[in-house]
Structure formats: structure tokens, C-alpha cells
Amino acid sequence: MTTVDTTTITVELPEAFDPRWNRLPGITVDGKKITLDPEKYFFRFETDSWLVIEWQTVQDGLLDVDETEEAAVEQMALEFIKAYARSTRDAGEVLAIAHQVYSYLFRDEHLASLGLPRVTAEHLRMLREAATFMALNKVELDGHISNVGPCWFFPSATGVVFDLSEEDGQMLDEVYHGGWFNEHRRIEGIKAHTALGGRLVHGCQSVPDQSGGVVAPYGAFMARFREELAGMKQEWIEQVDSYRVTAA
């Protein structure tokens, strides 16, 4: 039986995270320094290896490359991953790369063209932080969901941390999954997620329903992914929700 490394995960990021992340078990935020206790943080933690590509490599080699009639952006992303991805067991490195990915995808310059007036720069900061943690979630090629942390349940986790209403949590979830409701943003997302070894997939249907998102490897068996999602979430969502701070 393969065992995973449950050593404490630490990383120092370029910007400080909201200290309210400390409301969730296993997370300690001290300014720019983040510490995770895997045994307390994860609901399911079966693998401690992830595929990554250095963000600078993605910036230099893929972000400005356009798809053609012969090469769709998804095919370009798959080939780029095959050429440059490597396996790491350093979860702190995964978090650092994820923060670079989401600092790019959820940058403030997009607000003017987003077409969602309720979304603010503060919401984008929330997205950057929550999506960084979500990078440690993992789906295997056979579709099995091997790693699940509280940020899999995006509206619940962000509601607990940022004191969001259910409506605002779902709005944030829509922006995270929706690729900014724009083809250009979707293409940006496909390219950027190569740094995390795959493509963003989620289990929600037409509306956010806490079915979660993960950067899955190209070729992952989505039928098993959907089947596992259907049976895994309710108890864990209730645990996340239980940490919400309510007014006295």
C-alpha cells in the first residue's frame, strides 16, 4: 500500500492571504506565510504528487501562441504538458505556482470588460486565494478523486472565510468556473492551467451546486469523476459550513 507524506506544508507567497483562512482546520495563515497540516486539512488525501510546469515557462512558451486551423488550443496545451511537465511531491511548490496562475487569470485589468458590475477587485482577491488552495485537489487518469480539501466546495469555503452570503458565494463560484463568460478568458484559462498539469473541470450543471472543481489531467475518465462526485460531498459540505462565524 502506498503511503503519502503528511509532513506539514509551508509556502511563502508574494501577497498576504486573508487571516480568516485560519477558520478552516489545518490552515494557518500568517501574512504571506501559509502552513497546511495535511491530516487536518484534507478530507481525502491519497496522493502527494502533482504535475507542474514553472510559470515562467508557460509565460514564455504558450501564453502568446495562437491556435490555428491545424492546432486547437487544447491540443497545444496537451503537447506543452507532455513536453515540459514534471512530477513534484512539494505541495508548497504547487501552491506557489497556483498563486501565479490565478494572479494572472484573476487580474484586476479584466474588471472593466467582465460585464458583471457586482464583481469587484476584492472578489478577485478572494478568487486568487481560494483557487490557490484548490490546486492541491487531484483527480487521477481513471477519474478517481484522490485529494479533496475544503476548497473543493467553493461557495461553502469562501462563505466561511470571507463571510459571504450564499448568493455571493455562488456568484464567486460562477466567475471561477465560467472562464469569465468569454471565449478569450476560456482560452487564457486553458493555457494557464498547463502550469498545474491539466485543464480545469467541474461537476456543476447549469448552476453552481457545490460539485467542485479541479485541474484534471487531459484524458481523465470523466464518467467515473461524475459518479464519485455524486456520492461524496454532502457530509463534507456540512463540515465546512459548520465553521461559519455567525453574529451573536
Automatic annotation (TrEMBL):
> From which domain of life does this come?
Bacteria
Q: What is this protein called?
A: Uncharacterized protein
In which organism is this protein found? Answer: Streptomyces kaniharaensis
